[in-house]
Amino acid sequence: MSYPNSYYAATAEILQDQPQLVGETHSDVCVIGGGFTGLSTAFHLAKRGYRVALLEAEKIGWGASGRNGGQLGVGQVHQQRELINLCGSDEARMLWEMADEARILVKHLIRDNQIECDFRDGNLGCAVTRGDFDDFKTNAEFVAQHYGYQNYQVLEQSEIAETVGYAGYRGGLLDMSAGHLHPLNYAQGLARLAIEAGVAIFENSRVQAIQNGGKATVVTDEGSLVADFVVLGCNGYLGTLVPGIASEVLPADNYQITTVPLDEEVAQSILTNNTAAWDTSKQVYYYRKTPDQRLIFGGGVGYPGREPMDIAKIVRPHLCNIYPALADVQIDYAWSGTFAATRNQLPCFGRLAPNVLYAHGYTGHGVGLATMAGQIMADCVSGTAERFDFMSSLPKRRYPGAGRFNSSVLTLGFLYIWLMDKFRS
User: Fold this and answer.
1) How far is it, in rounded angstroms, from Cα 199 to Cα 29?
2) Secondary structure of the chain as H, E, C letters
3) Partners of 202 in beta bridges
4) φ/ψ of residue 108, rounded to 5
5) Average pLDDT, integer, range 185-206
6) pTM for the full model?
7) I want to staple 369 with a disulfide (CB 3.0 to 4.6 A). Which of 211, 250, 317, 362 is the partner?
8) How far apart are CA 358 and CA 31, in angstroms?
9) Domain extents for the chain?
């Protein structure tokens, strides 16, 4: 077992290998998935005295949790007025409050438990069009007036050009209470906390079936685990394990590259406040500097399981559009990771049975929302289900023909994204 050849894998502090599940064992709760959702669930349950076993098909943080852009923002994918139209005003407020709690939860876990994951303050949204900038300002005014959130700082075009080092954006929205981190080290830190709390983690233990009766039996290649509760945190790697919920999410790949360490003069001209940045293009380009002055740049979408031969060739043109001076910079790492999108861009929570819970579909906001999902599912297992039931009650829009027609849906989606970015530019 090994991690993809990413900057994160090359610089991570990896825990020692955990054993494979062999034979039959028992626990109070079986957690499936060794990413942010599963690790957070396991840790929060173990802290409450539950016997927890976590099953991971590969290695801890092997999937999107160890490969993502590492950005911790606030809020959901939708801005608040959009959420009100989609869900209602009370529901939109609750979604805002949960997302804000997610931001605080991640920061507290890191600080209180000395998780070494290069956390830095600051997250900057960059408006591609004037309309996007107007939306930023409207949202900042709305959450300040109605929710008392005063952390947003609006940047005019000249200010964001000076901060980012690129004159093409129309404005920005800066939140210094949000931030960015090394996601694989964050996942390893959560795993360490879970193990210290008593969680039994099994790697290389792919789940083949869940057999539910009075108790659930979770079957792997080499063993089985009998538990009172099962929690699924598989997200874009659910596959065919539970066909009934596969249509709630659409797995897609996202690409990232990392440069060599930049010359000091060049590095100082890029993201001068060391925040993470993302923009409002439909493909959502995002980037940040590492402590050793590299630039991690991500964007673009592709088919899961069909990694291109040359990822850098796909991503570099977008990097050079923002930073022409980096046209010839050497790329040290290039990789892909699978995220799970939902049709309405809201996370999906639910029950497959009274004792089988799941959460997935964070649509690019997984650092905070997946960590919070784990806490919410731990609450539900331990008897406090209000937040879980609220999230489960949110509207779900399924993808037609999920599984068999994923490629067709993705192809249409890619075409739409490409046309929209061309039109907006």
Assistant:
1) 10
2) CCCCCCHHHHHCCCCCCCCCCCEEEEEEEEEECCCHHHHHHHHHHHHCCCCEEEECCCCCCCCHHHCCCCEECCCCCCCHHHHHHHHCHHHHHHHHHHHHHHHHHHHHHHHHCCCCCCCEEEEEEEECCHHHHHHHHHHHHHHHHHHCCCCEEEECHHHHHHHHCCCCCCEEEEEEEEEECCHHHHHHHHHHHHHHCCCEEECCCCEEEEEECCCEEEEECCEEEEEEEEEECCHHHCCCCCHHHHCCCEEEEEEEEEECCCCHHHHHCCCCCCCEEEECCCCCCEEEECCCCCEEEEEEEECCCCCCCCHHHHHHHHHHHHCHHHCCCCEEEEEEEEEEECCCCCCEEEEEECCEEEEECCCCCHHHHHHHHHHHHHHHHCCCCHHHHHHHHCCCCCCCCCCCCHHHHHHHHHHHHHHHHHHHC
3) 55
4) -70, -40
5) 98
6) 0.95
7) 362
8) 10
9) 7-67+184-248+345-405
Give the pLDDT confidence of 237-261 residue by residue, as tens digits. 998 899 889 889 988 899 999 999 9
Residue of 341, 393, 397 lying closest to 94 (CA atoms): 393
In this structure, the number of other CB atoms found within 10 A of the CB of residue 292 comes to 12
- Rounded Cα gap, residues 99 and 95, in angstroms: 6
Closest CA to 219 of 210, 227, 228, 232: 210
pLDDT in tens, 10-26: 999 999 999 999 999 99
Residue 180 has pLDDT above 60, yes or no: yes
Q: If we measure between CA atoms, which residue out of 83, 294, 74 comes closest to residue 173? A: 74
Question: Residue written as tokens 């650092």?
Answer: 367
- Tokens describing residue 365: 């906001």
Q: Which residues of 338-366 are buried (b: 16+ CB within 10 A; e: fewer)?
A: bbbbbbbbbbbbbebeebbbbbbbbbbbb
Q: Could you give the CA distance from residue 20 to residue 212 in angstroms, rounded to a whole number?
A: 22
The rounded distance, in Å, linking the Cα atoms of 93 and 87 is 10
Phi then psi dihedrals of residue 226, to 5 deg: -100, 130
- Start-to-end CA distance of the chain, whole Å, equals 43
Query: Domain 7-67+184-248+345-405, CATH 3.50.50.60 — does that match?
Result: yes
- For β-strands 71-72 and 52-55, DSSP reports them as unpaired
Q: Which two tokens stand for residue 69?
A: 């852009």
Taken in order 270, 314, 126, 235, the sign of the CA dihedral is: negative
